[in-house]
Amino acid sequence: MQELIFTDDPAAALGRLLRSRTGRVFMLADENTAAFAPSIAGCTPVVVPAGDDNKTLKSARIIWQAMVDGGATRLSTVVNFGGGMISDLGGFAAATFKRGISFINVPTTLLAAVDAAVGGKTGINFAGLKNEIGVFREADAVVISATYFSTLPRAELMSGYAEMVKHSLIADAAGYGRLIAVDPAAIPPSAMLELLRDSVEIKRRIVSADPSERGIRKALNLGHTVGHAFEEFALLKSCPLPHGAAVAHGLLAEMVIANLCLGFPSDELYRYAAWLQANYAPVRFTCDDYPQLLGLMAHDKKNASPDAINFTLLAAPADPRIDCTATLSDITAALDIFRDLLSC
Ligand SMILES: NC(=O)c1ccc[n+]([C@@H]2O[C@H](COP(=O)([O-])OP(=O)(O)OC[C@H]3O[C@@H](n4cnc5c(N)ncnc54)[C@H](O)[C@@H]3O)[C@@H](O)[C@H]2O)c1
To answer: Atom 5 in ligand 1: which residue has the minimum CA distance?
Structure first.
């Protein structure tokens, strides 16, 4: 079972975790997070270029080579110090090196702290497809702290906040109301740490009930079927969106589908749309783009067939229904309503 450590002093917590290790330690960071990585005696630094477009085989190769050069053994540990790109990439590199060595995640973005670093999904992008190659393998421990978030640009903070909002929509209706009533940038680190604890606990509970995503773990895909389509669409238009911003918009589109198919309450739809509009830059598309967006949704690897688009939908906040199927005409109608709600 993965150890989750919530702390105001992540460097000290990491030092304690590493003290009992006998093998060599490799500290993976990207070129931004390397600047504030904790210095641990005897630890070999490994630095890769930043950004999701470097979550690649080429970067995994840099890590494997550094481990070979540094004399890594099966007792070695990789510390993944950075955002979700680093925990996905470093987790994958560690999980496949010598058939799997230990790793510890120290997330430095809100998105990684609340989502990417927890739950055992690791992987890299391949052939232009996100997360196409990867394995399920949990970090030995995740050191979670809000102390690193003060340097995050607002767009990155809001990207992670969308995943917190998603967790509350799945399992905590009252918590959802509280999250959308405050400005995340104004939340002090100690209060943010408590929010992280609640949010990560929702994910932990769901993942431990269904580690390999055959049942209830699909609830965590809420907002992601349309969200991934928005993310890939934006990338194709050369104006990339942070992952969580795409998910925030995906949540609205999927609430509209749920409103049409499951009677998700209209007043909740309007409440969420107002919050979304106030906090995220718009996702721009027209009805001419619908075929492309539908194609991207159908390509989502969680779909059983290219004609059936599967969703996790909400009957109401904190009432998720997995394995829902929506017709192309329902989704088209939902995209029209989505654009009306956001006046775009
Ligand atoms: N495995 C999962 O379950 C899961 C879930 C969600 C997302 N993801 C993956 O996570 C990645 C996105 O994660 P992300 O948003 O953290 O992106 P990221 O790791 O690319 O970080 C975003 C940017 O912020 C910088 N950064 C990191 N920490 C910082 C800090 N404290 N201050 C200032 N800048 C900082 C990074 O260098 C980078 O430039 C994607 O690859 C996505 O596919 C994985």
So the answer is: 116
pLDDT tens per residue across all 344 residues of the chain: 689 999 999 999 999 999 989 999 999 999 999 999 999 999 999 999 999 989 999 999 999 999 999 999 999 999 999 999 999 999 999 999 999 999 999 999 999 999 999 999 999 999 878 889 999 999 999 999 999 999 999 999 999 999 999 999 999 999 999 999 999 999 999 999 999 999 999 999 999 999 888 999 999 999 999 999 999 899 888 888 999 999 999 999 999 999 999 999 999 999 999 999 999 999 999 999 999 999 999 876 566 566 779 999 999 999 999 999 999 999 999 999 999 999 87
Q: How far is the CA of 336 from the centre of ligand 1 (A)?
A: 31
Same domain? For 237 and 327 the reply is yes
Q: Which residues contact 326 (CB under 8 A, 6 or more apart)?
A: 257, 260, 261, 309, 311, 313, 334
Q: Is the Cβ–Cβ distance between 303 and 310 less than 8 Å?
A: yes
194 is written with which tokens? 């408590």
227: domain CATH number?
A: 1.20.1090.10
Q: In the β-sheet with 77-82, what is the strand arrangement from edge to edge?
A: 3-6, 141-144, 102-107, 77-82, 25-30, 44-48
How far is Cα of residue 303 from the mean position of the Cα atoms in its chain? Answer: 19
Tell me the three state secondary structure of residue 122.
Answer: coil
Q: How many domains does the chain have?
A: 2
| pTM, two decimal places | 0.93
Q: Which residues line ligand 1 (CB under 6 A)?
A: 30, 32-33, 50-52, 55, 82-86, 88, 108-109, 111-112, 115-116, 119, 121, 130-131, 148, 151-152, 156, 159, 242-243
**Is the domain of 179 the same as that of 255?**
yes
User: What are the phi and psi torsion angles at 99 (to 5°)?
Assistant: 60, 20
Say how far residue 287 (Cα) sits from the centre of its chain: 28
Q: Tell me: do 145 and 165 sit in the same domain.
A: no
Structural domain of 16: 3-152
SS3 content of the chain, % helix, strand, coil (to 5): 55, 15, 30
Reference 297, options 255, 332, 337; nearest CA is 332
